[in-house]
Amino acid sequence: MERSRHIRSGARVLGRLTTRGAGTALALAIGTAAIGRTTSTHRPSPARRGGVEGLRAAAAQATLRRIATAIAEGGTLDELLERVVHEGRILLDAQRVEVAVNDPRAGSVWAGTGAQGLREDDAARGTAALVDRRRPRTLVAAIPGRGTRQAFVVADGACSPDADLLIDELARLAGLAQARADEHARLHALARTDALTGLRNRRAFDERLADEVTTARRFGRPLSLAILDIDRFKRVNDEFGHMAGDETLRAVCGAVAAQARVEDLVARIGGEEIAWLMPGAAPPAARVAGERALDAIRDLGLPVGCVTASCGLSQLRRSDANGCDVLRRADCALYEAKAAGRNRLALG
User: Fold this and answer.
1) Residue tagged active-site, from 79, 272, 273, 336
2) What is the pTM for the complete model shown?
């Protein structure tokens, strides 16, 4: 009983802090420290509990602490679940440990060791196995989740004497891994999103441009880039105010984004400049798409009057050193369109 209480205490601190609204990173950090304290303060000595039993409890606590530390450091859901599964197999002394997190927004995420993946009979057994654990070598524990998520840990061939207790602790940590990965994904998206328009920002654009240049060269596919800039946008701000200017910018960005394909990227890269990256689009198709976007902007019918934009269009060339060359030509073409009278598209 005492050993079970010590193993349980650190992980439960993590769960309480998270459910009470503490920040995830802070909760994980404090919870990790709590697990460490149970190891150092409450570790039963071999003299009191017997050498083998005491060492086994200390090893379990150390494994839980390693999992909690990895979760606190953050990462993607796949990365964190792989760590939970790897350490969980050691923790439970099991032949197989699987973690399933079912998320309707992203499908199911599976992680496992020593097997092809979670077996269908494990999923079908589900909650019944939680209530009836008469099968000594197969254990199932529900992972605490939020919303519509359903998740559980399955362990086959668990030989640890404390497997019933430890799989519950492993499930709690898997739930915290899920929450930590959610926070990581949210912050990652936030850092790459323009707050005013909801489009991707310059950082996201630069990353995607570099990736698409690499992909285009590897597979020999075309890559087009359009840069659009609202004509005489300063006049809108000066005559109607910055609130009207913001509304105008949002409407123009929305009009361009509505013309994009699923595989395209539309980003606000500065001021009233919009970048439209079109993977796989040959020059004729990209030009049609650019003209269509300019038409959509002219047809907005905004309170500030008719708004137009100019567009510079370029394509990836074999001689380009990197994506910066494509961007430079598109920018030069944009200035040519402005110099030629605005409200038009120029090729670079």
Assistant:
1) 272
2) 0.65
